[in-house]
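User: I'm curious what two different proteins look like when written out as structure tokens. Can you demonstrate?

Assistant: Sure. I'll show them one after the other, since each token string lines up with its own sequence. Here's the first protein:
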Amino acid sequence: MIWLVALVCCIAFFIPTNAVYILIFYYLITIGYSLKLKSVPILDIYILSVLYSVRVVMGQSMTNITISAWLIVFCMFFFLSLACLKRVSELYQVQKSNQSLAKRRGYEVGDLAVLAPTGICCALISVLVIGLYINSDQVKALYQHPEYIWFTVFVLLFWKMRLWFLGMRGLINQDPVIFVIKDKITYVVFLLVLITAILASQNVI
């Protein structure tokens, strides 16, 4: 553990100052989450979504690529939905084992009635953000055919609804992020989104 911290400190000398601050923030929040905050209902899923979003900001600070407010808002709702799905999946496993409380968590099985609708709403809002983004001046400046991006909206809507469909059936018995990494349909969706972005770009004639 000590040598890992030493390695990170050495790397910090070679990355932008903003990235170092973000890294420290991420480290402190992660420690707080691991020690105590992961057992605080509602706050824990917010922290998870923030940690996922901070990774995006970290990438921006390392590459100097400008991140729009649209992306930040999308990430917050997108990752909040995944965080809710994570807790829903855990509670379904608790329900199957006939327990009332999740181990080391502050949730009860009855909280599924709140977590599930919240996660589904966040998933839909994240897709809605993309729909609103398509009509922004930013998109018109970046893409020659912004109307193609509407296909991305429908693809992501299908993908998010599928995840929650599986989650509500108790078929996601692990971290949703791990499930997504192993899911073949996710790779197809990613490929379709990538192709759509290329077709919508300014280079398309």
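Here's a second, unrelated protein for contrast:
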Amino acid sequence: MSEKTELQRQLNPMHVWAIAFGCIIGWGSFINPGKKFLPNSGVAGTAIAMVLGGIVMAIIAFSYAYMIPKFPKAGGEFTFTKKCFGKQAAYICGWFLVAAYLTNVPMNSTAIGLIVDGLDGNANILKWGFNYSIAGFEVYLGEIILAMSILILFGVLNILGVKKAGVVQTILAILLVTSVLVLFISALISSKAKLSNTLPVWGFDKKAAIAAFKDGTYQTITPFAHKGSRGILSAILATFAIAPWAYVGFDTIPQAAEEFNFPYKKVMIIMAIAIVFGCFVYTANNTIAAAALENWPDLIVEAQSTPWLLLAAAERLLGLPGKILVGVAVSCAVLSGIMGFYMASARLMYSMSLDGYLPSIFGKLDPKHGTPRNAMIFCILVSLSGPILGREALGWFVDMSAIGASIGYFFTSASSLITQKRDKDGNALIKVMAVIGIIFSLSFVVLQLIPIPGLSGVHFGKESYIMLAIWVAIGVVFYFTRSQKIDQRSK
């Protein structure tokens, strides 16, 4: 059989929506109410930040919708940047996008063990074999084996054909949004979910509260809700700063542009719907977790590791059916996230390889299925690090993904502006959206990287800075080792 040289056009609009939505909603939307959202921003701060973030992402999506028909090739932002800014800028964009997409796969895989443990009660059936601790969290062989098995399974499914992967992704996405919607409606009609439980609505100083708990001076929720609240601006920005991570996924759409079997004019509406659904799930999960638990600040402060507040809230609202709903939703989120980011990562690497930015082996397609097999195998191997690092590394991956996505948004918005000027076919609305997209993309980078007085919990933590420095260093070395190949392919 002769080797296929082109990706296969087998994705319909529903498949593409499912890829985008499945990437937007991953494990983080279910664990971060206890880890980041509620302590940093509370219910009100998180809701406002997510809505604002969704609006900004929709603005940036205009640039994507404009650029995809211009350059309907795998690679997305990388391809746009190469055409408009040249090889060095394209490499920077592509390298950081690899971080944005690929870190989400191991990040989702770390949740698999917690799903089983949470639904299993006290049996802890995965906590067997050798174990060790990373960032205060115990990692067990049983969890590693299960997570790695799923990573390999879904990687192989991606190799077997984009249409099969698209069908599976669609089923997972529909089950995910249906489960969250049922749980949200249950919270609205249940007497156990109360607005008063959401205090402090702007979050609290988690570090100070934990220190007070350790020295015995920590107060319970009623006085604490008034004395420990964060400032409104700080609360909103703490979550708004990671909006690029929260919504990373709609931008995976151009990575599969060569595989669409429908007109490109539908891309904008598909992205917009995915962003709206994503905003709903983030906000609903966070609000349900707080409204159904009258002592959620105490649970966060007293926990030895990140508490799964949404699972506790669902069980309080509906009992075992509530736990099952969360189990179905988070399982679909994890699996769809793994599936979607595998697809995006492999196609980005495939495109970069064709232009010499990565070794030529990543530019080979499977002769039978027409998928970037070698790039996918590499993604699988890298993703197997997630189960080994454990769940407390989640925050580091979030930050890496956020900075990578922000850089991709910036280059796409800037490329849109340049392309409109060059081709003289843009309209005023698209130009304005591109300028706003550039401003917000740079703002996200500043918020993530630069500590701003009075805005605690917004910028990177120490471990995230270290990971970023390592990634940049590897990228610099790799670029200079590949520069000759890049020069040859760019001619």
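A detail about the second structure: DSSP finds 21 helices and two strands in the chain.
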